Amino acid sequence: MNNRGMITAGQLFVLLFISRVIVTVTYSPQLSSGDDMWSHLISALISFPLTLLMLVPVLLLRRQNASMSVLEFSEDVFKRFSVIIILFYAIYFLLVCGYGIALYNKFISLGVNGETPVFAISAAVAVASCYGAFKGIEAMARASGIILVGLFATVLLMLCGLLPSTDTENYRSVLSVSGESVYSGTVLMLSRMSCIPALAVLYPIVKGNISRGSVLWSSFVFMTIMLFIILVTGSLGDYLKYSIFPVYQAAKTVNIGFLQRLDALFIGLWTAGLFCRLSLFMYLFALCVGKIFGKKASRIAIVLGSAAVIIFGAVTTDMGFRSFIFSKDVWLWLTITAAVIIPLVLLIIYKIKSVIKGDDREGVKAHEMQ
Description:
Blueprint: E1 7-8, H1 9-24, H2 40-64, H3 70-78, H4 82-112, H5 118-135, H6 137-162, H7 179-191, H8 195-202, E2 206-207, H9 210-236, H10 246-253, H11 262-293, H12 295-316, H13 328-369
Parallel strand pairs: 1-2
Helix pairs in contact: 1-6, 1-9, 1-11, 2-7, 2-8, 2-9, 2-13, 3-4, 3-13, 4-5, 4-11, 4-12, 4-13, 5-11, 5-12, 6-11, 7-13, 9-10, 10-11, 11-12
């Protein structure tokens, strides 16, 4: 595992953008306990400013000391008890990988083809991601640039293919949306902001303006989400209620010349994006393990973590969308704890300790002057 090297803010946020959008394109109404995708347009408008607020503690923590990640801050503040916080982040990042592979298995088995060898495909993706984590953050950043080109191309093709079949009668007034569905959609979107805890660990190795990059990243993520909602709702209409993965279903409906196999391109993009996402969070998991047990342990952690993800994916394949791994409420609290609560607590205690140390130094100087 390569722990050394720096990446630019642009590379980081491309990596995080792909990681977030890949989860978005496999949106399923069953994940939000509803079937009103149009209401989630309002959810996106609400989630955007809330996401910016979630970023504030991490950005303030970085302003205190840009060379210390949330892991180093926890060591400085809590000393030996920091292992509890670091272990929480390690488990969180591994669970993010588990969520990714479980959702991918659902997508392949239910959305694509029920006879597809799900275990073999997901195992291959996990093994490839293990290799990506070993190569390090710089290699992942370079790979994400290539995947981003494919993502933009796919979105552009979907735009060209779905616009002619869009029916404006499928759109309703925003005043008629379901409040419960808006709430569920908002919870789902915020629960998927695992990129913010990732940022809290990675910012010491990033060059550039992270604050501006965070705003741009959030903006592009939610613009992409809203674009998908508008396109899919306009093209599928009432069929949304019967679609497990609406974005993929919309891609399958494209039937214009060379765009007839857009669904195959969609599957390839999703697989490449999942590789990017799993590599990133497995790398973060290994970093946390390395903080506790040393650098050699981080290499072993990648292998063991990947094996755990494969097994987890196999176990959860037959579980429904109501199982714990897909619970938006559980993920919301896990993400808020990792992205907001822990950084905020560390920031407050660190500031208090800094003030106390400053007062002690002033007292010593005054005593010496006397």
